[in-house]
Amino acid sequence: MASIRFGNEIRELRRRRDWSQLELAVRSGVGERTIARLEAGIGVPTLDNLLRLAAALGADPGEFVRYFPQPELPVYAEAAEVEVVADPEP
């Protein structure tokens, strides 16, 4: 679902500029086939491709990241107090 929303956003931004997928590929350095797959909602872009597409389209990369689920960060229990003892002298 996230990939489809991302793909729709890329397509919309590209069409607003009246660019073909080939033109976006040339301007961004991202392969035309990759762009077609992303616009179709197939797969997730690499960070490098996401940044390249955002730069070419004049978009904030952070706006694209919102389309993808954010991993939950692990919650660590507080460290137990530990008594530090000096090594006994030989």
Brief description of this entry?
This protein has 90 residues and is mainly alpha-helical. The protein has helices at 2-16, 21-28, 32-39, 47-57, 61-65.
Please specify the SSE layout and strand pairing.
Elements: H1 2-16, H2 21-28, H3 32-39, H4 47-57, H5 61-65
Helix pairs in contact: 1-3
Describe this structure in words.
By secondary structure, this protein is mostly helical. The chain has one domain (2-65): 434 Repressor (Amino-terminal Domain), CATH 1.10.260.40. Helix content is 52%, strand content 0%. The chain has helices spanning 2-16, 21-28, 32-39, 47-57, 61-65. The longest helix is centred in the N-terminal third of the chain and has 15 residues, at 2-16. The mean pLDDT is 86.
Helix and strand content put the structural class at mainly alpha
How helix-rich are the residues, as a percent range? Answer: 40-55%
Largest sheet: none
Mean pLDDT: 86
Briefly note the CATH topology name: 434 Repressor (Amino-terminal Domain)
Number of strands: 0
The number of domains is 1
Under the CATH scheme, the architecture is Orthogonal Bundle
Q: Low-confidence parts lasting 5 or more residues at pLDDT below 50? A: none
Order of helices and strands: HHHHH
Q: Tally the helices: what do you get?
A: 5
Q: How large is the share of residues in beta strands?
A: under 5%
Distance between the termini: 66 Å
